Amino acid sequence: MDKTWNNKAWFMVLPMLLLVAFSAVIPLMTVVNYSVQDTFGNNQFFWAGTDWFSDVLSSPRFHDALMRNLLFSGIILLIEVPLGIFIALNMPRKGLGVPFCLVFMSLPLLIPWNVVGTIWQVFGRIDIGLLGYTLNALGFDYNYVNDPFDAWVTVIVMDVWHWTSLVVLLCYAGLVSIPDAYYQAAKIDGASRWSVFRYIQLPKMNRVLLIAVLLRFMDSFMIYTEPFVVTGGGPGNATTFLSIDLVKTAIGQFDVGPAAAMSLIYFLIILLLSWVFYTVMVTNDAKG
Amino acid sequence: MARIDLDHIRHAYMPNPARDEDYALREVHHSWDDGGAYALLGPSGCGKTTLLNIISGLLTPSEGKILFDGRDVTGLQPEERNIAQVFQFPVVYDTMTVSDNLAFPLRNRGMAEAEVKKRVAEVLEMIDLGDIAHRKARGLTADLKQKISLGRGLVRADVNAILFDEPLTVIDPHMKWQLRSQLKLLHRRFGHTMVYVTHDQTEALTFADKVVVMYGGEIVQIGTPQELFERPSHTFVGYFIGSPGMNVLPVTLEGANARLGQHSIVLPGAAGPTIGKRTELGIRPEFVHLGREGMPVTIDKIEDVGRQKIVRAAIEGHELAIVLDEDSSVPADPHVTFDPAGINIYADDWRMKLGG
Q1: pLDDT grade for A286, boundaries at 50, 70 and 90
Q2: pLDDT tens-digit readout, A227-245
Q3: Contact A185/B85, CB-based, under 8 Å?
Q4: pLDDT of B147-160, one tens digit each?
Q5: Per the record, GO CC terms (chain B) (predicted)?
Q6: Which domains does chain B have, with CATH numbers?
Q7: Chain A 182-201, CB below 8 Å of chain B: which residues?
Q8: B120-138 burial, b if ≥16 CB within 10 A, otherwise e?
């Protein structure tokens, strides 16, 4: 039977197209538009070509923020992924402990970002914060307001506290999907605890781990709210990540052109790195 | 290779079993010979996998002891019992190659690498996987994965027993025959004690020297395929073994006769007292003769199953299956006679001895 061709069917997707255009395409194109123009106000724009892009790419301020982001994401992944796996492995598989652990694990994920920031901002204060005050009382010289290292530790611990649960829950989902027969077979084969992890649990968690790593990488690379609330990017520029720098440029200084160019570069970096992660992990997966 | 003694084993999955019904395994007290090939046959939920897991040590029985060659192993872990077990669904280590999968149980026990290579090569040949030995196990078909699982079960030469838990469920029918005969061959060659759980009677009867029929958490009969066929000791064995199963008809006993409605059937001997018990006569369809003499039956339908015909009839309002040769015909006024050699009498489902 011949297919009926009717191009009027395209009108059916028109509403969706309009919706996507207004919610995504047009705002994105606005950014592209700003990134190639300069303005001195009064709604007058001049063509700037790729000037803003080369400015941003050669600016030390951008390089520093990018390095901070990479360092931050690296540390976050190195802590949260192994810790998440470890906690998931030790969570109970049946009984009353299961709902208790799951609810307990989900709690940090349910708290809004800025509230998490506020909690830690107060928690770490040396005058009234439980953590800050206790540490100082114990003789540690801890002050996230003027010590860059302390500020970093605070932001990292906060992120680990906030997001390790996500890795835990994903890994746990992977672990409970392993049929009992695998563990039984491993027992009969005389496998050690490490072999069970290496040859049964880890391969079965592979897919969820890929999702966990991607999500944690993207989220940590785009981190804004929590450090903004806790440290405001300081002391100095110690915790000024790309997102914080971007907001400073765009809204603090109203440098719309450089900010737009920076947004696009930022976006492409995340896209590129996510693609690299994905490709590497999927290729590993295929190789086994 | 070992003789396995099951000493008054009972098992319940709940903490404080009170009644018989609470036990998944009611009471098993048997000895299995060294080097025997046993099949545990029964419907789903009859306790056969429970019994298998108790032998392998994955489960510790609630009561009773289990002995390998006289040594009490009840408290030992599976890896300390030195047994191999193959599961219903294929368990392979995805990230390893086929040959590493087979080598895994050997390496875990610290066998020298040269010896490992030799054993693995032998097993690869046995299960015919030589040409994919160096491929990753991931992505292989279920058939091949299950072959690897079987191979891992066979790779250790010194095991006390090899246990199979419905290992051929996921395998294609033609491959089933091939693997089953291969297992049988291996059993003859190496003489391992093998226990094979299945709910498929053909599988049980072709694999095992002795078939252990389980029903409702109990062993109802252990015997050779022939014994199970000719002298089922429980009506369940009669139903379950044979196709179609044994006919079971309610009768009243009068000395060496059984009364079925208005008919009297001569028994090979008189039964003992059966006061208060439900008495039944069991006869396999193969021992019912259809002709012009005997008890009248009405015929419901005739199924042609190739070399035989199965006649579905009714006698005195009870269903009766009769097996007919392909070229026998059904008389217009059908009657049946029962071959006395094929008659068994049951009281409350258990077979009664018929005296001289």
Answers
A1: low
A2: 888 888 778 788 888 888 8
A3: yes
A4: 888 888 888 888 88
A5: ATP-binding cassette (ABC) transporter complex, substrate-binding subunit-containing
A6: 4-235 (3.40.50.300), 248-355 (2.40.50.140)
A7: 182, 184-185, 187-192, 195, 199-200
A8: beebbebbebeebeeebbb
* Alpha carbon A174 to chain centroid, angstroms: 21
> Which residue on chain B is closest to A192 by alpha carbon?
B108
* Count of A-B CB contacts under 8 Å: 58
Q: A142 pLDDT band (50/70/90 cuts)?
A: confident
Mean pLDDT, range B199-210, rounded to an integer: 85
Kindly give, in sequence order, each residue whose CB lies less than 8 Å from that of residue B344, ignoring residues fewer than 6 positions away: B231, B232, B238, B246, B281, B282, B283, B351
CA distance B179 to B287: 33
Distances (CA, A) of B89 to A47, B154, B298: 67, 17, 46
Rounded CA-CA distance B242/A216 in Å is 61
Domains of chain A, CATH where assigned: 64-287 (1.10.3720.10)
CA-based nearest distance A182→chain B, Å: 6
In chain B, which residues touch A (CB < 8 A)? 53, 56, 58, 77-79, 83-85, 87-89, 91, 93-96, 104-105, 108-109, 136, 138, 149, 152
| Average pLDDT of the residues in B1-20 | 80
